[in-house]
Amino acid sequence: MALEEVWNVVRSIPLGRVASYGAIGRALRPPLSGRIVGRFMARCPGDVPWWRVVAQTGELPVGKRDPRLEMEQREILAGEGVPMTQGVVAPEAFWEP
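The structure assignment produced for this chain is given below.
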C-alpha cells in the first residue's frame, strides 16, 4: 500500500536530518509526486516522524495548514539538532532516501 510505503520511508529518516516531500516520492516505486506525499503525510499515524519532512527549499509548509504545527515542528527539529537559518532548514540537514 502506498501510504505505508511513504510512512516507512519517513520512519527511516535519521535523527537530526530531514527529507523533502519530493525526495520521499522519488524513493518509491512507482514514484509519487511531492504533493501526493504531502497529502499522505497529513494522515500519518503517531509513530511517523512527520516533523522530519520539509519542502525542498527547507521551509516548513505544514504551517499553511496549522501555524501551531509549524511551531511544534520547528521546536522538535531544533531539539534534534537540525540546523536552521532564518527559519529555514539548512541544506546540510537534508537526507536522500
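Interim note for the steering committee: The domain at 2-91 is CATH 1.10.10.10 (Arc Repressor Mutant, subunit A). Helices lie at 2-11, 21-26, 34-41, 62-65, 67-79.
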